[in-house]
């Protein structure tokens, strides 16, 4: 999928719409989800124009990849969820139900999160 520079996170990165920023590094930005699904629900995005995790892992520089992975850990620790545990999730594409076509990892925490996903129907 080609990157759409009009997606909402691209607009946040350009400063065209506001966000509740929690952390920023050279190559990554973290902000609170506008519709939180847990007491802690933070989104971490790379600043570069990448649609998905596979797009990012193929095209991003080593510095960007390193920065992104480290940022996810920093944000989890600073949100205070590292000790009790948390979940990171990236929805990708149509089957992954990705709504915003700019790579983002959700960090959920602050409560027991239950099972990962519902069992699928094997029949
Ligand atoms: P996805 O379904 O693509 O994995 O998740 C997109 C997430 O972006 C959703 O959890 C949604 O609440 C969040 N979101 C959508 N628009 C905005 C926005 O303008 N600001 C912020 N902070 N979050 C947004």
Protein model, in words:
- The chain has 123 residues and is of the alpha+beta class.
- It has one domain (8-109): HIT-like (HIT family, subunit A).
- Helix content is 24%, strand content 20%.
- The chain has a 5-stranded antiparallel beta sheet, with helices on one face.
- The relative contact order is 0.22.
- Bound molecules: guanosine-5'-monophosphate.
- The site of guanosine-5'-monophosphate has 12 residues, from strand 2.
- Residues 8, 19, 31-35, 91, 97-100 line the site of guanosine-5'-monophosphate.
* Major sheet: arrangement of strands: 1-2-3-5-4
| Radius of gyration computed on alpha carbons | 15 Å
Instruction: Specify the helix fraction band.
Output: 10-25%
Tell me what the CATH architecture is: 2-Layer Sandwich
Poorly predicted runs of 5 or more residues: none
CATH-assigned fold name? HIT family, subunit A
Number of domains: 1
The number of helical elements comes to: 3
**From the helix content, strand content and strand pairing, which structural class follows?**
alpha+beta
Residue share in β-strands: 15-25%
């Amino acid at each position: 999928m080609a990157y759409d520079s009009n997606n909402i996170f691209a607009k946040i990165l350009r400063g065209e719409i506001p966000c509740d920023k929690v952390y920023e590094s050279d190559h990554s930005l973290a902000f609170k989800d506008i519709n939180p699904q847990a007491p802690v629900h933070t989104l971490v995005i790379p600043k570069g124009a990448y649609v998905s995790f596979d797009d990012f892992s193929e095209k991003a520089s080593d510095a960007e990849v390193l920065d992104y992975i480290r940022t996810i850990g920093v944000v989890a620790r600073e949100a205070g969820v590292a000790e009790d545990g948390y979940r990171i999730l990236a929805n990708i594409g149509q089957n992954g139900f990705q709504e915003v076509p700019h790579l983002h990892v959700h960090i959920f925490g602050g409560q027991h999160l239950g099972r990962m996903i519902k069992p699928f129907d094997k029949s």
